[in-house]
Amino acid sequence: MKPQLKEQFSITKKEWNGLLILLIIIALVLAAPYIYQGFHKDTTINEKAFAAAVAELEKANPQKKKAATPTALFKFDPNSATYADWQKLGLTAKQAQILKNYTTKGGHFRKAEDLQKIYGLTKVDYARLAPFIIIDKETAKPAGIVELNSADSARLTNLEGIGPAFAKRIINYRQRLGGFVNEEQLKEVYGLDELKYAEIKNQVKVEPKKVRKININTITFDQLRLMPYLNYKQVNAIIEYRTQHGNYSGMDDLSNIAIIDAQILRKIEPYLVFK
């Protein structure tokens, strides 16, 4: 029995040497952090030098001004608030400039909720300012009827029921048309239905003289393709007919194109010139 146990638990010289080397390696690994600290002392930071370096970095890389910290919120009318007022209310320089540009271009706030229309003003900003908004009835009045062919987005948002999204759609459609020849064309703007039109029709007017005309004898396919009343095939037919028969002399020539009916001709006629 003893010889068997001795055989099981005895180790050779080679194995003993290997075990010894392993123990030495483990000891070195455990001692390494202490050895490193002994040879590498932490360098003490020179606070004055560090502060000077930070100042130089900030001078070389100026950042945008942060929002002014309001000392105390106060009652204000957004239609007459100055750039400085907006900053005193805790808005950033960019937000203050956007608001000032809006009112300078003719934008008006009829009620406190209209402030939420302004791009860049967060819900948190509005919730903080809303209790202090006081709108004077006189400053809230838009300056007359809005002319659709010259109004910018700020002016269009003065219309009751028209926010930034609708204002952008109206301007985009106006650019494609070349301008509005009558108010009812607003109903062709995406999402602007009969109910919405009835809500704003008495607030708008159109000056047809401001419409951008199209010279049908020189316009290219790509330019004419923007006209919303014509589809791809109709535009192609107009260009092809001109190539084959020469310049158009009037609407009668266009009526010879089979795929363009009388209704389409009536819609595009106010936009065409034949030079």
Automatic annotation (TrEMBL):
The keyword Nucleotidyltransferase does not apply. The keyword Transmembrane applies. InterPro entries: Endo/Exo/Phosphatase_dom_1 (IPR051675), RuvA_2-like (IPR010994). One of its GO terms (biological process) is protein secretion by the type II secretion system. Signal peptide: none annotated. GO terms for cellular component: type II protein secretion system complex. The chain crosses the membrane at residues 16-36. Keywords: Membrane, Transmembrane, Transmembrane helix. This is Helix-hairpin-helix domain-containing protein.
